[in-house]
Amino acid sequence: MAPLGIAIVGSGIFVREQHLPAALATPLLTIKAIWSRSLSSAEQAAKLIPEGSQAAVDLYSSDSGPGKGYDDLLKRSDIVGVILALPIPDMPAYIEKALAAGKHVLGEKPIAPTIGKALELVEYYKKVSADAGGQAATWSVAENFRFIPAYDYAVEQIKTLGKMTAFHVKVCNLMEESNKYYGTAWRAKPEFQGGFILDGGVHFTAALRKLLGDENSVQSLSAYTAQVRSWLPPVDSVHAVLKAKSGVIGTYVQSAGSSAGSFQFQIVCENGVVEAESRKCVVIRGHGADAKREEKDFTPTFGVKEEVHAWGEALQTGKPNPAQSPEQAVADLELIEKMLNSGQQGGSSQSTEYQ
Fold this sequence. Notes:
Layout: E1 4-9, H1 13-25, E2 29-36, H2 39-46, E3 58-61, H3 70-74, E4 81-84, H4 91-100, E5 104-108, H5 115-131, E6 139-142, H6 149-158, E7 164-174, H7 185-188, H8 196-212, E8 218-226, E9 237-244, E10 249-255, E11 257-269, E12 272-276, E13 280-285, E14 292-297, H9 304-317, H10 326-344, E15 350-351
Parallel strand pairs: 1-2, 1-4, 2-3, 4-5, 5-6, 7-10
Antiparallel strand pairs: 7-11, 8-9, 8-15, 9-10, 11-12, 12-13, 13-14
């Protein structure tokens, strides 16, 4: 199959370190253009494309003058889709413009700043699709944690251990002021709920939802939130108790302000335990002295190359990947938003609607 032409919209850290290499790695896509707010940042991103790896890319920006803006990029017939990676508050408007122009979209997570805005986007997408008689461009959401092989393996192992009885997530680190991601103004002074809890949290709720499966989807939760570090507004920590529709109860702890580093996804079943992370999956079969520990290592990956390749396959075949559906991303966001709402209300019980 001939590679399909795409554009990358945005030139921030994640684009430079993840999206560009991922798009270059798949034979299903070829980068035709890069857009950024400033021409200088678009140029910096373009310099990362190895010479001779593909044809030269065209650059677009807000300050490039007539014929070189975002709207102009969307008019190009040789560009069938765009990878969008912009500040969270800006994403919805750029998604809508791309879909209206008939371009397929792979938009970075979270799907939107709030569930309300996410649902508006979903309705807009449905309208565009209906108006086009089913021939409209597709909208996919880039959640790379759904494409990490270790979690796929963990899901299969969970199925061999009987009924799920508990689950625990603990992801803690310290987002220091010197961190490169803190250095981006829209993250340091967020104009969206939850700050780093939202920005990073949807990764972790996506992984949790994958491990739980539909039969153990979260039905309700209660949480407390706090701002531990002065430079991480509005909150940097959440501690929650979640109850699945199956009755299984679990815990979710996330902090960007913690001195104690931790990255744990633990699923407890009747006949054993699965502990998963991006590079390793540990399976403990049985109990007590008779328990047997199995450990499987995986090639380190953040899942971005896998997700971009999956999007390329979807464009080539005309069949969107279910793991990249807006509905999945809405469910990821809902869990974080419900935790934040519960925390604001002193730990009130919150019921889910979109799991």
